[in-house]
Amino acid sequence: ILQKDNDPKYRSKLCTEWKEQSGIVTLDWPSQSPDANPIENVWAYLKHKLRGKRVCTLKQLTRQIRLIWRSLPNEYAVNLVESMPRRCQAIINAGSDWTHY
After folding, report:
1. CA–CA separation, 95 vs 97, rounded Å?
2. What domain of life does the native source organism fall in (predicted)?
3. Deepest in the core among 6, 17, 34, 51, taking most CB within 10 A?
4. pTM for the whole structure
């Protein structure tokens, strides 16, 4: 399953055909809603772990990202998933305002 927001490039003919041919199911997600999007926490984790790493080429960067991704603790992902009910409630409580997520 691929989580996507409403960015127009994900709706392009080329992208849509590739996802269909690859058997990728997409899960629509509101755009501009980082507090409802736990992957934002994962991006922050990856960026944090990349700091201080010396990468000079795209190949080195890709390798480092893959290593970090594979070493992501299971508990981290579980905690993000389990935080969703609290995130949703915080969004409801905040109206259209900022939440701490």
Report:
1. 5
2. Eukaryota
3. 34
4. 0.64
Do residues 22 and 44 share a domain?
no
Instruction: Compute the CA torsion angle 9, 10, 11, 16 (nearest 10 deg).
Output: 120
Query: In this structure, what token pair is assigned to residue 55?
Result: 């990468």
pLDDT at 30: 67
How does DSSP classify residue 38?
T
- What residues contact 77, with CB distance under 8 A and at least 6 apart? 42
19: tokens are: 């996802």
3-state secondary structure of 4: strand
The SS3 of residue 6 is coil
Q: Each residue of 34-85: pLDDT tens digit? A: 777 888 889 899 999 999 899 999 999 999 999 999 999 999 999 998 998 9
Nearest residue to 37 via CA among 45, 29, 27: 29
Structural domains in the chain (count): 2
